Amino acid sequence: NFLSKACKEKGIPIKTNTQAAGFITESRDGKKTITGVRAVLNNAPIEFKANSGVIIATGGFTANQKLCSQLDPRLKNMKFTGSPCATGDIFKAVEEVGGQLKDLEEIQCNLGPVQKFSHRSGYHTDVKRHILVNNEGKRFVAEDGLRDVLRDAVLSQPEGEVFILVDSDGFQDLSSRFQQNGAASESLGYGWKANSVKELAEKMKVSPANLEEALSQYNAAVDSKKDVFGREAWMLVKKIEKPPFYATKARMAIHYTMGGIVIDTQARVLDKDSQPIEHLYAAGEATTGVHGTNRVGGNGILDAFVFGRIAGESAATHK
Ligand SMILES: Cc1cc2nc3c(=O)[nH]c(=O)nc-3n(C[C@H](O)[C@H](O)[C@H](O)COP(=O)(O)OP(=O)(O)OC[C@H]3O[C@@H](n4cnc5c(N)ncnc54)[C@H](O)[C@@H]3O)c2cc1C
Q1: pLDDT (tens digit per residue) in 130-180
Q2: Domain-terminating residue out of 206, 231, 253
Q3: Measured from the CB, is residue 152 less than 6 Å from ligand 1?
Q4: Which of 16, 37, 81, 287 suits 206 as a labelling partner, its CA being 20 to 30 A distant?
Q5: Residue 37, domain extent
């Protein structure tokens, strides 16, 4: 809203439902220069002239199941957490003008539901409040691990399915949306609530003895600040002991793509020789290199805003 208001005030038109499909180029002083964008609006081609430059801000390719599973076969048929428009369709056009793509195989996953994404419980969103167990009712990973560690650990469980567990305090601390999603997962048969750990285990169809052991070991680790799975001491602050207890089944979902278009510190798109392509800029999830192989939660918006602003400045000031 803030950004669209600012565009409106400055008389900058916003075209929605318009898919950028390619770049218009000219040779200036012997250099390939981007001078516009070819797009599609209502199935009809349309061109936009760009006096100062073109900024690519088309996001990642988490919804491109074909590409993601080619890059990492473990992601085959996996759901995605974001917009269905995150297809990376602009990459072809970037390559056509000589742009460099890198590290596409670095794909981040996050816990999602076993069915519709709109019903993901979000019980894992407060790391201090939850544990993960497998279908034997045993913990298998430090829940505060980096997202690639968690992805690999969850994908190595049978069927790639795990359970997220919170107690009454953890549930109360969730946003109302995630509480509602938890209730939705109960009605869909992959979420459970119970007044004892034993009863919860029976509903989850896991071994009650294992689940009780997992929770008592975890609660002891909160006291000792030493966790057998290596959870950090500052992530061992809340016991999971107050009924009712809640659990949902979860699977990994494709969440964020760290690879993409190579840019420099001025947000200029680089070619295969790492030289800037004249008047072509990129920012946000469409790019690569900012997060390495593991985006830390919260840094996606930061990246988009910081490099979006740099790209705008670069385009406005470049001669
Ligand atoms: C469920 C979820 C939760 C998240 N939570 C957080 C969080 O708490 N904190 C955080 O920092 N980050 C979070 N992220 C990541 C964050 O959303 C992204 O880092 C951020 O949205 C990237 O911004 P962007 O502008 O680069 O791309 P996007 O926000 O993806 O925007 C790209 C836009 O370009 C459009 N587009 C795509 N292709 C074309 C084309 N060819 N032509 C025209 N338009 C096109 C798309 O439709 C979209 O509107 C979350 C992501 C998800 C999926």
Answers
A1: 999 999 999 999 999 999 999 999 999 999 999 999 999 999 999 999 999
A2: 253
A3: no
A4: 81
A5: 2-106+258-317
